[in-house]
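Hey L., structure's done. Input below.
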Amino acid sequence: MSIDVSAIREEFPILAREIYGKPLVYLDSAASAQKPQAVIEAMTHAMEYSYANVHRGLHLLSNEATTAFEDARATVATFLNAASPDEIVFTSGGTDAINLVSYALGVDEIREGDEIILSLMEHHSNIVPWHLLRERKGAVLKWLDVTDDGEIDLDVYRSLFTPRTKLVAISHMSNVLGAPTPAKALTQIAHEYGAKILFDGCQAAVHGKIDVRDIGCDFYAVTGHKLYGPTGIGVLYGRMDVLKTLPPYRGGGEMIDTVTTDTVTYNDPPHRFEAGTPPIVEAIGLGAALLWLSAKGIDAVAAHETALRTHATEELRKLNFVRIYGQSAEKAPIIAFAVDGAHPHDVSAILDRQGVALRAGHHCAQPLMKRLGVTATARASLALYNTHDDVEALIKALHKTHEMLS
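Output:
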């Protein structure tokens, strides 16, 4: 099965735009992906035709909205191969999902001197919540080094564990280097030592099949806006036996069973963690996005993206003024690079005037930047709607950028 990229591009209205009189070449999907018409229409239909609050109403509109909302939960469960939709907690994003776990573990499980293992290539969303536990609970953060390509030595990883290790929080794929981590092996080792493990899957879920049951992890966090869905929606997958042990994250409606003037009892997962009116329309949009993406064929999408990454890497290597960071053989189409003598911000600004949109900065990964010996990089991230012509446009624009800056 292969994908028809020309047809796919027609499904993204924004790709018809021109930027400064030039066709848009969007190479910033690792930050946030564009939205297909199917997602736009699903959300519009929900707002125009059957919007109401969910779970609490007995009227038709509420029933329709509840069905669509819970159908989206089931779609996410299928996408991640969770054992049940009840293992899927809707959040406001990947960051919120990680913060939920941080808060809940911090109530009873993480005490002064307990250890949390992180890697040096984590996004700040998977660093700062654990710093909060360091500050507030006296937790100890232990850092796993990575190679220049973003690869992990499992023996070094194993050496970090002690009887005080309670959690591993680690990316399933670097948002800078595009390098995947060996999720199943990392999980097995963590569990050998009685530690829980959380994966930040915000990048990995976009570029290949995710099977949380095969991985065996305790938690897996994803965000909707990188998966061609809307902002304001994310997911925490948690194994049911683990979710049942966690206290509520926030208080309010929906997350309760009974409330009296003297007591409160809490709902079962996942609703225990979904206080208040949830992101109803956004969840419906995420469900539509996952159905749309799955229909394209995850393997076919991955093959297309691999071809784009190979093409882009080969062409960038020909430029003697460009340095690429991260050369993992299995990396995603995420390419961080530097242009000799130019700050990444200047590179991005000049490329923008040529219609090429990419990211520049520390990518919310300052420990990794320090590990690489830089303060920032440029980053081109490709998606299923990109083409080989987009790659050529990037290379042409970089030649012009180098000429201007040199």
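The longest helix spans residues 60-80. The first strand starts at residue 18 and ends at 19.

-- N.
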